[in-house]
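User: Working on a comparison across species. This one is Glycosyltransferase family 2 protein from Enterococcus hulanensis. Can you predict its structure so I can line it up against the others?
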Amino acid sequence: MNNEKIAILIPCYNESLTIKKVINDFQRELPEADIYVYDNNSTDNTYEIALNEGAIVKKEPRQGKGNVIRQMFFDIEADYYLMVDGDDTYPAENSHELIAALREGSADMVIGDRLSNGTYFNENKRAFHDFGNNLVKNSINRLYQANIKDVMTGYRGFNRMFVKSFPVMSSGFQIETEFTIHALDKRFKLVEIPIDYRDRPEGSESKLDTYSDGLKVLLTILKMFKDYKPLLFFSVFSLIFCVFGLAFGVPVINEFIHTGFITKVPSSILATGLMVFALLLLITGLILDTVVTNAKKEYELHLYRLYEETIQKEKI
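Assistant: Here's the predicted structure for Glycosyltransferase family 2 protein from Enterococcus hulanensis:
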């Protein structure tokens, strides 16, 4: 435990008003931790302030939070990782609880839950954010039969196993949704810890666009639904086309049974096409489900190898 390494990950874009306080708060709470600030093309003096406060500062030229986190995961070696935004909305005081859950092995990823105690709803005044949070949360919980309370929080903790086996696919703010879906799909241990949320100080503006980024998050969920659960995804569309096929085809079949003739030729052609398309969707789902199952097996073997490497490093 004395040799363990803790890394604080702070992705930043134009956070000159708050970055000093964020760094100082974590230096006070976790003096043994290394604090990494990755500046994502800021046009203010975020980089200089972070450097002056003793953080390890790097620049990431590819715009987007997902790109920053991807590079951080590549670069940084640690036992435990704590990711937090540079806008001073998350309290450093809760960092001990997040790290403790990782250290005792009860979680591979810890979620700083802003929603359970109501502070997010009291502090955040941006239109549609509550609606968006609930929509994303309910969609993921239904998809995975889970009970995650805060899907899109930017305050999270990870162990090394999670970080080094996480494929970052998103380039922007969808990364938080991706973390949660990946953890649920790959059966990582999740723990949610209620935290207090405070809104940005006056003069500091959110980089999250309610509509465009919200749409990107929803499209990410849809894409991951297709990638992670293809049989269910394609079966839903197969069922829809099958229902339409029956709607057009049943009158044609009924006419043939009673008269022995088919006069509704366009309806019969349309019904046949819809049923064939429904069958093709179902077959596609079955094939992709086999591919995903094999990919999961490979991923599990990769985790075993990574676990063995971690054990060997601890023995050295």
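For your comparison, note: The first strand starts at residue 6 and ends at 12.

User: Helpful, thanks.
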